[in-house]
Design brief:
Strand order of the largest sheet of chain A: 2-1-3-4-5
Distance between the termini of chain A: 32 Å
Strand content of chain B: 25-35%
Number of helices of chain A: 5
Oligomer: heterodimer
Structural class of chain B: alpha+beta
Helix content of chain B: 25-40%
Radius of gyration of chain B: 12 Å
Helix content of chain A: 40-55%
Order of helices and strands of chain B: EHEHEEH
Shape of chain B: globular
Number of strands of chain B: 4
Number of helices of chain B: 3
Largest interface: A-B, 37 and 35 residues
Largest sheet of chain B: 4 strands, mixed
Chain lengths: 133, 91
């Protein structure tokens, strides 16, 4: 059974990058621009990996993450965000609540999406310094 | 030469304490006391992650000895980790 990846993002450029990177791979790709739809998807399907933009049009990333984690405590979740303090400050409440997630630096390129997805779903990758950026 | 490692994580990365402990155990078993592991929480220090061109958490960087190597994915798998660090697993 193929592994399923959920991408929640309303940015068309980023969504295109995920489609380009992951379509045609053994993974099943589900996309939505709305946090609420992403939560509904997690509640109704087996999801193996989630990518989520830090800014969504219909919901806050913090609330969406809380709802997903209330249903699934173990699925790997990557928040797509610039590594800037103002965005990290948005996520700090989750740290104090013990809600787990990881970060993917924004903007992200197609090679990064592919390598990170394979590394998370299939094991470790070894990369030479600076390859991803 | 001492092995210098930097681990970039989010404070609540999957079972963080367990994961970091496991990574330290792997290093202790295979590198002895001949290594230093610096752990950086990206939520607290995003500027350091930017400076090191970190793309994703968790990321482990072997700073020394050169060449610098970057590992992502399952960093807590001993065989894979040591393969990346070019070390042989101790029996």
């Amino acid at each position: 059974m193929s592994k399923t990846i959920l991408v929640i993002d309303d940015n068309k450029t980023i969504m295109s990058a995920f489609r380009f990177a992951l379509e045609g791979t053994p993974y099943t790709l589900i996309t939505t621009s709305k946090g609420g739809e992403g939560v509904a998807c997690v509640r109704s399907k087996q999801i193996d990996l989630i990518y989520m933009d830090i800014e969504m049009e219909d919901a806050s990333v913090v609330d969406t993450l809380r709802e997903i984690r209330s249903h699934d405590k173990s699925v790997p979740i990557y928040i797509i965000t610039p590594f800037e303090q103002k965005f990290m400050d948005m996520l700090l409440p989750l740290k104090s609540e013990g809600i787990s997630f990881d970060l993917l630096n924004k903007p992200c390129n197609i090679d990064a999406i592919t390598l990170i997805t394979e590394s998370v779903l299939d094991g470790i990758n070894y990369l030479k310094g600076g390859f991803l950026k | 030469m001492k092995t210098l490692l930097k681990l970039y994580i989010v404070g609540n990365t999957f079972q963080p304490n367990h994961a970091v402990t496991k990574l330290k155990d792997i290093c202790d078993s295979n590198l002895g006391s001949d290594y230093e592991l610096e752990i950086i929480d990206v939520l607290e220090h995003p500027e350091l992650a930017e400076k090191d061109n970190i793309v994703v958490t968790p990321t482990l960087i072997k700073m020394m000895p050169t060449p610098v190597k970057i590992l992502i994915g399952d960093l807590y798998n001993a065989k894979a980790l040591l393969l990346g660090l070019e070390k042989e697993e101790q029996e």
